Amino acid sequence: MIKKLLSFLTFCSVCACINAQNVTLSADQIKQLTPDWKGERTPDGRPKVADKYLDRLKNIALEEAWGILRNKGFQNQFEGEWMVIRPDSAMVGRVVTAQYMPSRPDVDKVIKDKGKSEGRIGAPNSWPIDVLKNGDVYVADSYGKIVDGTLIGDNLGNAIFAKSGKGVIFYGSVRDIEGLEEIKGFNGWIKGYDPSYIQQMMLTGINIPIRIGRATVLPGDVVLAKKGGIIFVPAYLVEEVVLNAEFIQLRDQFGHQRLREGKYTPGQIDAQWTDEIKKDFLKWIDENSGKIPMSRQELDQFMKDRTW
What we know:
Elements (H helix, E strand, L loop, with lengths): L1 H18 L7 H7 L17 H7 L4 H10 L6 E2 L3 E2 L6 E12 L2 H13 L9 H5 L4 E6 L12 H11 L3 E4 L1 E2 L2 H5 L6 E3 L1 E2 L7 E6 L3 E3 L2 E3 L4 E5 L2 E5 L4 H24 L4 H5 L4 H13 L8 H9 L4
Parallel strand pairs: 3-4, 4-5, 5-7, 6-8
Antiparallel strand pairs: 1-13, 2-7, 3-9, 3-12, 10-11, 12-13
Helix pairs in contact: 3-9, 4-9
C-alpha cells in the first residue's frame, strides 16, 4: 500500500511539472504542500526553519529523533545503508529536492525547453544547484543508478558547497570522489561511486515530493544525516523533535549521574519518577544551567505539558 501511494505521489508530481510545463513547483504550490508550517519561508516557498534549531538538531541522536517522529505517526522518514564521504561528520540542513528518471526523449525535451525559457543555464543536473541557498542540502532521487548515474563530480561539488556550505544526499552515485573529498567541509551520503559520466537520465522536477529509499521527502524538510543513516524531519516538527530529544538527553544525564552516585536504584530511574526524584531533577537542572542545550524558558514551557 505504501509503495503504491509513493508511486502515485511521484506520478502526480511529474505530471504536474510536465502538464504545467514547470521545472519546479511554484511558491504557492509548495505552501499548499506544507500547510502545517506557520513560520518564515524562503522566496521559493519552502519552510525556513531557524538556524538555532538546525544547530541543535545536529547534536540529536538518530534514535531519539526517529522515536519522536514515529510517535507522531511518521513511519517513513528514515533511510539507512549509505556510503558516506566523511562518516564522522554529521550534516543538518533545509532540503532542496530533485527527481531524476531514465531518459525519455519527448519528456526530456519538454523539461529542457521549459528550462531554457526560464533562463536556466547548463545541463539539467546543474539546475538544482542554482536553487541552493546557504544552509540547504541538495537531496536527489536518482533511482539508485550507479553506472552512468553520477549526478556530480568535483566541479559541481565545489559549486554546491560554495552556495550552501553543506553537501548532498543522492539515492544514486557520484564521480571524482577524490576531488569531492578535497572540498573542506563538503559531505555526501550516496549509494555508490563510479568513474562514468551521467548518461540516459533526465531531470523531472525540482522541489517536488520525492522518495529516498523508504522515506518520503518534501522540499523544506530538515535532514539529519549521520553515519548510521538519514532522517527527514517535517519542518513544522523540528522544534518539537529538538526539545523532546534535548529533554530526554537531560533526563538520561541526570539518571546516569544519580545511578553512579548510588542515590537511586535502576528500578526507580526506569519507572515513573516520584515527586522526590522530579524535585531532585529540577534542582540538578539549576545546578547545571550552563550545560543545558535549551533555555530555561524553553524548558519550563516544555515541562508544563510533559507527563514525565
